[in-house]
Design brief:
alpha+beta; N-terminal domain of MutM-like DNA repair proteins; Helicase, Ruva Protein, domain 3; 2 domains; four-stranded antiparallel sheet; 6 helices; 23% helix; multifunctional enzyme; zinc-finger; glycosidase
Length: 270
């Protein structure tokens, strides 16, 4: 699933290509909105909210989309061949005189009044990369359920919006606890959780401005961009202990037994 930094980059690309121009063609390929006619409406802006995209249109309408696990918005020049998947995976097409945005495999696509955007994204916690970021509120949200494992709490977009599985694993490593550690069992949770929230914002912000490989270590050497994610059986970059892997809430989760304390599954997958 795309993380918040990827969604913000996608929003920036869509905004640069579409904003300020009227739609010359629009096709929403979902039954509920298949007959909606958006032609002629000017694209006002494309705004990210956590992992959601809000494409605001003239006349008080917003096209709300979510990329899910493998969705994507692709941009093409007029006459350019679309590449992004077979035609049956296309859920939306938005064209102006100079660009066409094609949405592939979008699990969420809905047209709503801009005034009703809260219905789609109002449940989200503070956006790590948004103007509403509030470190104290994010930390308080995480602490509200002290028995919940930290990894699950970080992925809950109602606590703070934008963290995906990669950053979950990396943040737990930086906090030196396993993802299965209950929030309330962290060393001094009231002090630790604001630091975790601040680190999350710092990592996402650092990875928003470029489209290369995601990096949390600061190293540019190939294979050393991430501390633990995707590194099962490989030595920890800090202590050399082989990184382990096990599922958490259905997602592959990585940790270093040498650097991270706390509970772990009884039978790790690797």
């Amino acid at each position: 699933m795309p993380e918040g930094d990827s969604v913000h980059r996608a929003a920036a690309r869509l905004h640069a290509a579409l904003a300020g121009s009227p739609l010359t063609h629009a096709d929403l390929r979902v039954p509920r909105f298949a007959t909606a006619d958006l032609t002629g409406r000017t694209v006002l802006d494309v705004t990210p909210r956590g992992k959601h995209l809000l494409t605001r249109l003239e006349g008080g309408l917003t096209l709300h989309s979510h990329l899910g696990m493998d969705g994507a918005w692709r941009l093409f020049a007029p006459g350019e061949k679309w590449r992004g998947g077979p035609s049956h995976e296309i859920r939306a097409v938005l064209s102006t005189a100079t660009a066409t945005a094609v949405g592939y495999r979008l699990p969420v696509l809905e047209l709503l009044r801009t005034a009703d955007e809260a219905r789609a994204v109002g449940h989200l916690g503070p956006d790590l990369l948004g103007p509403d970021w509030d470190e104290a509120r994010a930390a308080a949200n995480l602490l509200a359920d002290p028995g919940r494992p930290l990894g699950e709490a970080l992925l809950d977009q109602r606590n703070l919006a934008g963290i995906g599985n990669i950053y979950k694993c990396e943040l737990c490593f930086l906090a030196q606890v396993t993802p299965w550690t209950p929030v309330g069992a962290l060393p001094d949770p009231a002090a630790t959780l604001p630091r975790v929230a601040a680190a999350a914002r710092r990592l996402l912000a650092a990875n928003t401005g470029h489209g290369g490989a995601r990096n949390t270590t600061g190293s540019r050497r190939p294979g050393r961009e991430l501390f633990v994610y995707g590194r099962a059986h490989r030595p920890c970059l800090r202590c050399g202990t082989p990184v382990r892997e096990a599922p958490q809430d259905g997602r592959p989760t990585y940790w270093c037994p040498g650097c991270q304390s706390g509970p772990v599954p009884e039978r790790p997958t690797s």
